[in-house]
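Lecture 7, part B: from sequences to assemblies.

Below are the input chains for today's worked example.
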Amino acid sequence: MTTATATPLAERMRGIVGAGNVLSSASDLVVYECDGFTIEKNKPDVVVFPSSTEQIVAIVKACVELGVPFVPRGAGTSLAGGCLPVGGGVMIGLAKMKRILEVNYRDRYAVIEPGVVNLWLTNHLKPQGYHFAPDPSSQGACTIGGNVATNSGGPHTLKYGVTVNHVLGVELVLPDGRVVHTGGPVEDAPGYDLTGVIVGSEGTFGVAAKAWVRITRNPEAYRTLLGVFETVDDATNTISDIIGAGIIPGAREMLDSLILQAVEAAFRFGFPLDAGAVLIMEVDGLDAGLDQDAERIIEIAKKNNAREVRKANTDAERLLLWKSRKQAFGAVGRLAPSYCTQDGVVPRTKLPLILRFIQEMGAKYDLRIANVFHAGDGNIHPIILFDERDADQVKRVLNASHAILDECIRLGGSVTGEHGIGVEKIDFMPKLFTPDDLAMMVRLRTAFNPDNRCSPHKMLPTAGACIEQSKAGRRAAL
Amino acid sequence: MNETCYIDGFGPLPIVKPDGVASLGDLIRQAAARAAALYPVGGQTSISIGAPPSKAGQIVDLRALAKVIDFPARDMTVTVEAGITMKHLSNLLARENLRLPIDVPHADCATLGGILAANVSGPRRLGYGTLRDYVIGISALNDEGNEFKAGGRVVKNVAGYDLCKLLVGSFGTLGIITQATLKLRPLPELQTVLVLMGEPGQLEAILTSLHVSRTRPVCVELLNQAAARTVFAEAKLAVPDTSWVLLVGYEGNADAVAWQVQQLVKEVGKQRRIDGRIDFTAKPLCEAVVELAALPMIETTFKASILPSATAAFCQQVDREPQRPLVRAHAASGIVYGHWPSGLTLAQAASMLTTWRDLAVQGQGSVIVPRCPSAWKTTLSVWGQPRPDAWLMREVKAKFDPKGIFNPGRFVDGI
Ligand SMILES: Cc1cc2nc3c(=O)[nH]c(=O)nc-3n(C[C@H](O)[C@H](O)[C@H](O)COP(=O)(O)OP(=O)(O)OC[C@H]3O[C@@H](n4cnc5c(N)ncnc54)[C@H](O)[C@@H]3O)c2cc1C
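Predicted structure of the full complex, as structure tokens:
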């Protein structure tokens, strides 16, 4: 789209939300040309910040009338390019819709606007001993609207579930401007579980303007253990054995030696730098019973050749341990100028195989790869270190990433456990799904978004001319 | 094939029993060509739910599709065909100390496909959630007889739209479920049920104290006297003599369960009579409460979904009706059932349904009629008023099943 048509578009948007809530100058738009996935970039024609459902409706109707696409955006922390405005158009920023509208402790739900940051809700609930269970590592920045769209996970998902398990209802502005309200605080509403498919639709079904979310009581107590292992195999076997013993820890995170060095340099927790892998294992729940579980875990870890198992003795120690984990990505910045994180899943028992494969890919493509991930779920996050100024390295990074994801598929897994397909992984969809599978997904999308006006070219591969457009955008970005 | 059967008085419908996915696909293509309908069934334990069929066709018995495809126990997942009975499945899982923690009545007949389609749940949904929380992959046949799948075999996966959620609870109206992959949980070391006795004026106070209790029950089941009498008799236990009984369940490792039992007694024991049952006696009681909905003596059932905080008042109101039902509620989840043995007239049922619906609206909820004599279904609206998002549901149905092959007429709003 050219600037000539962008200006009337911007004028139209100013009429809806006021001049202060529209960005249209080239310098302002640069910020919005990508999200946490930086390999592809494209500027929207205008960014609009509505403050109510009615304003979203007016924006969407204007887009329909003017024939431009639109894309919702929360905090822009997506790692899959979910916010990339393919084909330009209007970006609907939800950052100003950040009210917590209602909290009902007796019925255990909260109603929030989409721009509420994940951690704000948990902090808001803290005095009453409640929290919002999905806790992505980006929870200090990402919005609940974004979590709903991407069905976010986090370290605690094996025991507590991902976002969809905690969303009761959604108010959605459909791509034609109609508003639909699915689900709600009462369970078992008769009819299809539309809420269940809206969650995880990556912004392609419309704009979530409100959500009813479940709130969860805080565990009464924790036992947080740090297991130090010589090999990754020993660490992963430990996880399988713990679960085999009938214990479902709240969290199990694995860090390999490279990531340990980065984290140690940043936080000085006291991680052993010569270990092959460490496991952060946390059991939570009622205080009674936790010692029984913790002792079993220590026993199992020792049986799997753990060099030592340390216990976090104070709350401060526990928090530092978690801080080290949650900010591990940030710490990687110390190791290389750029890094790229992958998000694959394998059946938990295949973890040793995929980790060995990742190591081989590191050697083959001459890249350093660090691993820190949600081991209990088999959800790997290899972090490939590189220098983006070196075109050859960038190419090797992409090749290694693709090889790792292909291997996840071969081992019976998936190419994304929590970050989403976005634009990044569209090409993998035909590898995971048959044409019949994809056709049914297209049918579903057509019920919500028949003209593909809302966040076009995401999630599902598109046939025909449109693809050319998006490929061109990609080349320009690289 | 000369066997036939009626659904809600509609029929006779011939029963066909495909021996695999390929022949099921053929059946669908034939039905599509003849503009006929298919009514998929498993053990027929939930067949009473829904409006009468609206189109001639065939009943498809899926029980021959019952293979175990993959059971990697250490990954805590299982992939099975939809016709497997829940009894068979839970026996298989128990051998590896695992389970699907969903309460299913008639588990010896009920099939996985049937409980998925009907989204069956029971008392322990409080502690473990419902089927939508356990289905990580699904396969089904579409209106062209082609198999499609969504999800996968790993516990965490966000690739593609989550058609698992859409198919769970779709009552077979979007396609025929052929296979599912489930996330599993370990069997608990110990199970207990505490029986709390209560009188009408105390219900809300007890529920509130359970809500803030330091303990974490997996079920809080509220029974009126009639329901308690039936449940305790089935479990071969002495019947409590109060007008209301609460069954509070705890599961987990031995230390945690023992502590919770003592703690609850500390928290509410002074004011209430409490009777604790551990493992051996807990099991028959749990089973009896799960089976209550399926007892053959029950002819009519209402199910209300309301806010948990409205449950105590709701239960007391409906207990005062002249034709007093067996009232049982998953009290902390806001799900209330009323069960009537035969003897109720249509006029009485219709009048009571109006009362229930008026009350449910106050609790932001709704009421459906999962079971009643077929002849009543033209008078009673079994699904109630369509919700405001019903038009979008119809849109989804139109995309998945444009020719109206799958269970036409049986679901909400004429779907
Ligand atoms: C350091 C780091 C760590 C991370 N850790 C995790 C993790 O542990 N687990 C995890 O799951 N993810 C993680 N992520 C990814 C990301 O944070 C999540 O996907 C998050 O949910 C995105 O929220 P957001 O508000 O930033 O959404 P955005 O990035 O703004 O948008 C994400 C997608 O949602 C859509 N969207 C946003 N808001 C709405 C709305 N209101 N209505 C409809 N669609 C909308 C967008 O169009 C886009 O497709 C991490 C990211 C970073 C940078």
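Note for the exam: The first strand of chain A starts at residue 22 and ends at 23. Keep this in mind when comparing with the next example.
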